[in-house]
Amino acid sequence: MSAYIEVDYQFPAGVDAQRQAQAIAIGQTAGSWDARFQHREEQLRGHLAEVRAVHDLPEGRHLATIRFPAENVDGRMGSLLTMIFGKYSLAGPAKVMSIRLPEGYGQSCRFGLAGIREKLNVAERPLIMAIFKPALGLSAGDHAEILAEVAMAGLDIIKDDEILPDLPSAATLARWEACAPIIEARRDRTGRDLLYAMNLSGDARQVHELARQLVARGANALLLNVLAYGFPMLEALAADPEVNVPIFAHPALAGAWCAAPDHGFAYAAILGTAMSCAGADAVLYPAHYGSLPFPEADEQAIVAALRARGVAPVPSAGVHPGMLDAILEDYGPELILNAGTGIMDHPMGPSSGVLAFHEGLERWQEGASLKLSDLPAGPLRAAVEKWGAA
Amino acid sequence: MSAYIEVDYQFPAGVDAQRQAQAIAIGQTAGSWDARFQHREEQLRGHLAEVRAVHDLPEGRHLATIRFPAENVDGRMGSLLTMIFGKYSLAGPAKVMSIRLPEGYGQSCRFGLAGIREKLNVAERPLIMAIFKPALGLSAGDHAEILAEVAMAGLDIIKDDEILPDLPSAATLARWEACAPIIEARRDRTGRDLLYAMNLSGDARQVHELARQLVARGANALLLNVLAYGFPMLEALAADPEVNVPIFAHPALAGAWCAAPDHGFAYAAILGTAMSCAGADAVLYPAHYGSLPFPEADEQAIVAALRARGVAPVPSAGVHPGMLDAILEDYGPELILNAGTGIMDHPMGPSSGVLAFHEGLERWQEGASLKLSDLPAGPLRAAVEKWGAA
C-alpha cells in the first residue's frame, strides 16, 4: 500500500486557490511531459500529487489540501521541505499550515521526555531548566560558578544561550571541562544527574565533530539552533550512535520562517511536526504567557505535535514562577519549564530562582494556592512579588 | 582593530524602531547583567552591539542600522544568523534588509564564475545550463539519453531538478555512472568538459558522504538546496578538500525566508550575501523576466552581492532564448543562463533548445538583431516563436 504526505496550504484573498493547488501538485512533483516520455508514463504518473480539497476560509482566504506520494522523498526533512514548498515558495503568497506524515516518518527521538525523566530520575513533576546568563563574555570558570549555585538548589537542566558559539574567548570544550565536576559532585551528593545542553556551532562537519567530542568527554545533552543549522543537521546528530544524548532544539529564526501571515510555514508545522520528525528530544518555543508575542493556538498545536511523538515541550521566553498555575492548568506537568532571567535574576540570587520553582511545584502538587496573598515569605513569594502572576 | 558586522533592520509602521533597535543591540548580544558580574564588566561591554542610526522610510516604516562586534560569532553563517535574528525574529514584525560583513568573512568560493569558466574552457559568453526534466520518474538510462542529446549540441552545464533526492527508484550514484560516459565522450570529441550538478540529499552526514562518493567517482559539480539543508552544510562541503568541485546553490524555500513584506530577510541578504559568504560557487535565483514574480531590485542586489565575491549569478525559472537581449543588456555576459523547459521543451527537441541559446549568443556577440522578424529559420526562431521575447 502506498503512503502519502498531506499538506495544507493557505492562500490569501485574490489568489485562485484551485489553480495554485494544481500548480503545486504538478510543478512540485513530476511536472509535465510530452510524447518522448510515453515509455515512462506509469512511473511519471505515480509521482504526481493530487489536490484533495479546497476550502473557503474567513477573509477570502482558501485552504487547499494536497496529497503527495511519500516515495517522492527520501524520508528526511530536506527533501520533504523542498518538495512541498521549495520552488513554490517563490511563486506568490502561500503559507504551509499543516504537514501530515505517514506514521513513524523520519527520525524519531531517542529519549524524548520519558527518556530525559529517566536520566534525571524525576517522575511526574515538570522539569526545571535554566539558561546561563549573560550570554556572552563569561569565562568557563564563571559558568562553573553559576552552575554550582543552581545545581545545589535542585535544578534539572541548564543550557547555553543560543547565541554563544564556540569562540576562542569561550571554548565550548573548556566550558564543559569546567562544569563537569560540578555535575559530578551533585550526582555524588544527591544521586541525581543534571543535564547541560551545550550549544553547537561551526559548519556542518564541525558541528558534528564538536558534538562527538563533547559526548566523548561526558557531556550529557546538546543544544542546536535547528533553523539556522538545518533539519538535516539535527537528523544526523539524532542518528549517530556516538552522539547518544538528548538533543534540545532551539527555535531561533522561527519567526523568519513562520511569523508572516501569508508566507512561510505555520509555527506548528516547523516547531511541532518537523522538529519531532527530525529527531529532537525536546523543543523550545515561546510560551504565550511570556515575553514574546506568541499566539496561544500555535502553542497548543506545537505541544500536540510534539507529544504525538514523545518529544518534550519546553515553554520558554520570560517564564517565571508566577506563571506556574496558568501553564500547569493549560498543559499539565509533562513539560520542561525553561527560565532564563526567571531563575538567574531572582532577587535573592539564582539558587533562590530554582527554589522558587520547586516551591511552586510542590504547592501545586499539594493543591495549595499560588496566589501572592497566600504565599509565605521565601523564594516563591519574592519571585511573584518581582514578576507577578500570569 | 576590531571588526564589525552591520545589519539593517526594517520595522513596519506602528513599531517603535528606536526601542526595538536597542532591544536587538542588547538582547541579541550580552544582554543585561548585575553587580555579580562586575569583574567581567569589560568583557561583557565588549560584546554589546550598538545602534548606529534609525532612519525614516516611506509608509511609516523605519530602518535601523545595528553594529555587532564580529568576535561575537565564529565566522560562520549559523552563529551569524542566530545572533542577528535568532530570538528576535519571534519578537514582532521586522525584516533584515542588509548584512554587511568584514572583508573576506566566512567561506569564500573555490571556483566561482572564473573557475567554472576555466573548467569549461569558455571565456566571455554566458554559460548555458539545462535541467533534467521531468523531475521524477526517469531511470538513470533516461537521464543518459537526455544528456547525450544536449551534450552534443554544446551545453555547458546540466543539473538535476532540486526535488529529486537519492531514491531507491532513482539512485544518485547510478545516475552519475550512467551519465559519466556521455560527458567523457563529449570531452574526447570536442575537448570541452560539461558540468553535471548533482542534487544532494539525506541527513547532514549522508549529504556529505554522498558528495564525497560522487566526487570520488568523478562527478564534477554538486547542487544543494541550501535553505532546506542549512548554510552550515554548504560551508562544510565548500571547506572539504575531498569535495573539490563547484557547488551550485538552489534557492528552494527562499520565498519562505524572504517573500513576506515585514518578516524574515531581504532576498539579497540570503541569496546574495549569505550564499556568497558560505562557499557557493554559483547561485540560482528567479530572473525577473521569467515565470516567477520576482522584483527586479532584488535581482539586481543579488547579482551585485554575488559578483562582489566572484560567485556566478544564475538567473533561472522560465528562462528562454527570447530573453537573451534583455538579460544581456541588463547584466552583461558574466552569467550562467539556466533554462529548464526553455531547453527541454524546445519545439524541435532539447538539442535545438541548446542550439537556440548558442545562436542567440552568437548574434548578440556580433551585434545582430534578436528580433523575431530579423531571425532566419532555425532553432532560435522556433524558440522565439514559441516563447516570445522578454
TrEMBL record, chains A, B:
GO molecular function: magnesium ion binding; ribulose-bisphosphate carboxylase activity
Domain (Ribulose bisphosphate carboxylase large subunit C-terminal) ranges: 113-283, 309-387
Gene source species: Acidithiobacillus thiooxidans ATCC 19377
Alphabetized SUPFAM superfamilies for the sequence: RuBisCo, C-terminal domain, RuBisCO, large subunit, small (N-terminal) domain
Name by which UniProt lists this protein: 2,3-diketo-5-methylthiopentyl-1-phosphate enolase
GO biological process assignments: carbon fixation
Record InterPro entries: RuBisCO, RuBisCO_lsu_C, RuBisCO_lsu_C_sf, RuBisCO_lsu_N_sf
